[in-house]
Every structure is written in C-alpha cells, then in structure tokens.
Amino acid sequence: CLTLLIGGAGALWSLHQLHTTTERDAREDAQAMAESVAQTLALHISRAVRLGIPLGEIPGMPHYLQRALAQAPGLATIAVQTADGQTLHTTPLPKLSERRSTAPARAAIQLQGRSVGSVVVTTAPAALGQGLRKAYALGALLVLAMGLLAGWLAARDPGQRLERQRQQLLAGLDGLNSV
User: Fold this and answer.
1) Rounded to an integer, what distance in angstroms lies between the CA atom of residue 41 and that of residue 76?
2) Angle at alpha carbon of residue 149, lines to 143 and 153, rounded to 5°
3) Edge-to-edge strands of the sheet including 105-111?
4) Distance (Å, rounded) from C-alpha 34 to C-alpha 117?
5) Structure pTM?
6) Closest Cα to residue 90, out of 100, 72, 102, 76?
7) pLDDT per residue over 26-82, tens digit each?
8) Burial of 26 (C-beta count, 10 Å sphere; 0-12/13-18/19+)
9) Which DSSP state fits 85?
10) Which residues are registered as beta bridge partners of 79?
11) Calpha distance 71→102 (Å, rounded)
12) Given its phi and psi angles, is residue 124 left (phi above 0), alpha (psi -120 to 50 degrees) or beta?
C-alpha cells in the first residue's frame, strides 16, 4: 500500500512536470514557427513587389495567407500591413478560446533596401497544446498503469513471502507458549 502511495505521488509529480514542460514548449514552438512563417512570406511577397505589383494589389493574397495559416499549426492569424501599419490583408480571426498569443512575429517586406510593409503572424499555442493533450492523457494512463503494476508486484511476491514468514513466526511463538 505504501509503495502504491509513493508511486502515485511520484506519478502525480511527473505528470505535473510533463504538463508544465509541454505548455512551455508549445509556446516556444509556436513562436518559432510564427517567426519562420513571417520571414518566408515576407520574402515571397517582396519578390512580387520587386516585379512592380503594388502591395495592396497582389492577386490571390487572402487565399495564399489562409493556405499558409492552415499548414502551420499553432498560428492564429497572418496579416500583411503597409509600412505605416495599415492592414491590407488578413486571415479570419480565430475563436476566442484560441486567441491566447505571445508577441506577434514581424518580418519586413523589402523593396530596394527599404521596408514597404510587413507580415505579422500571431500565435495560438493552445492549438499545439490540444494535440499534445492526447500524449499527456496517454502518459497519465501509462504512469497510472505502471504504478498499479508496481504496487501489485510488491504485494504479490515480497508481500506473500512476508506473510509466510509472519505465519511461521506466529506458529513458532504458539509452539513456545504451549511449552
């Protein structure tokens, strides 16, 4: 019983550490992905601007941004802004529950060495965390199963041996008392 209690406490601590680490890693991964996507999109849009297409008139931009957003889990929105901060294109805002975001990642859209706009990407680490919740639940089940197995094994072999020894000791004491 004590083994099961100690194992359960250790399992709870391990699960808490797993949960804390998973959330932190999800935020860091989402931020790194946002920076990478912002830089890549800014480079692609810069090429179109260098060809003479005005930033606000690049064809298919909403669809392009939406497709980029769909391919990158952990991102909330992608927007293209002018140098003065006016938003030209943006993806739809996420649901309220997914809006928890770190600082947005920004990458400049360059034309002949000067910034003509930027790509702004916000994150939704909760989206990454949802995928990790399955792993967390599986880990919790595995830790619980291992704790129960350890408790059962401790009770079965050593516990039975101790019970036999106790019975022998009691039988020996009964023999001494009857003499």
Assistant:
1) 15
2) 145
3) 87-90, 75-82, 114-123, 105-111
4) 17
5) 0.64
6) 76
7) 778 888 889 999 999 999 999 999 999 998 899 999 999 999 988 887 788 999 999
8) buried
9) S
10) 90, 120
11) 19
12) beta
